[in-house]
Amino acid sequence: MMTPLSSARPRPAPALPPPWLDVDAWHLPRLPLRQARQAERPHDEAVHSPDGTVRPPDESPRRVDDTARLREHLSGSYAALHGRLLRRFRCADLAHECLHETWLRLQRPVLAEVREADAYVFRMACHVAIDRLRGQPSCLSLDDPAAALPELVDHTPGPQAVTEGRSALAALSRIVDQLPRRQRAVLIALRVEGRSRADAAEWLGMSLRSVDTALRQALRHCEQAAALI
């Protein structure tokens, strides 16, 4: 009995890859056209967003949105953030500088997704403040002439200065009491109360020339009496 011949045509042999193509890559599955173009694009090539802006390839739209949202939150809540930093670190200048540096750091893209903008910005500002405080010296030497220690200088007069001032004031009061009534009134009105010449003349019922003469005589008497003390 004879075996019937099959009517199907034999399959052609697979085409060989071109000589310039890697043989191992010839059998790999093909990518869609869009993915293939993205794979062929260099990593340092800029990416054009649908809105027309250009961003680096590693900067996704989500990161751009988070960075802009954080900067906007810092600008809108600056007073509240400054108050919280002031209560924590007790220094208004430090709080201002930390918020300014936080704004500069937010110019770079955020690496992770941010859910709470207020907590993220405040925590970043606190870290900046801690870094600044750690960079400052923990102690200063009082023997160092270059050390600026204005808060340690007491400008209030001591007991000796207070005693000398009271003694000089009592001596001046005795000298003024020795002046004639008109000269004493002119001296007190012009040099103690700070009145003008016209105001003192009107108040005392004197002319401007009489006021000038009385003041000159009173000052001469005080100078001569103080030289004898």
Compact overview of the structure:
This protein is 58% helix and 2% strand. The protein is mainly alpha-helical.
Describe this structure as you would to a colleague.
By secondary structure, this protein is mainly alpha-helical. Among the domains are: 66-135, Rna Polymerase Sigma Factor, Chain: A (Orthogonal Bundle); 169-227, Arc Repressor Mutant, subunit A (Orthogonal Bundle), CATH 1.10.10.10. It is built from 10 helices and 2 strands. It has helices spanning 23-26, 33-40, 61-76, 78-89, 92-105, 117-135, 159-177, 181-192, 197-204, 208-227; strands at residues 47-48, 54-55. A hairpin with a 5-residue loop joins strand 1 (47-48) and strand 2. Helix 7 crosses helix 10. The longest helix has 20 residues, at 208-227. The N and C termini lie far apart (158 Å). 10% of the residues are buried. Belongs to the sigma-70 factor family. ECF subfamily. Residues 170-222 form the RNA polymerase sigma factor 70 region 4 type domain.
Neighbour order of strands in the largest sheet: 1-2
Low-confidence blocks of residues: 39-54
Largest sheet: 2 strands, antiparallel
Rg is 44 Å
| CATH topology heading of the domain at 66-135 | Rna Polymerase Sigma Factor, Chain: A
* Total E-strand runs: 2
CATH architecture of the domain at 66-135: Orthogonal Bundle
- The overall pLDDT average reads 75
> Looking at the structure, what is the overall shape?
elongated
CATH class of the domain at 66-135: Mainly Alpha
User: Percentage of helical residues?
Assistant: 55-70%
Taking the alpha carbons of the first and last residues, their distance comes to: 158 Å
Class from secondary-structure proportions: mainly alpha
Strand proportion: under 5%
Order of helices and strands: HHEEHHHHHHHH
Put simply, the count of helices is: 10
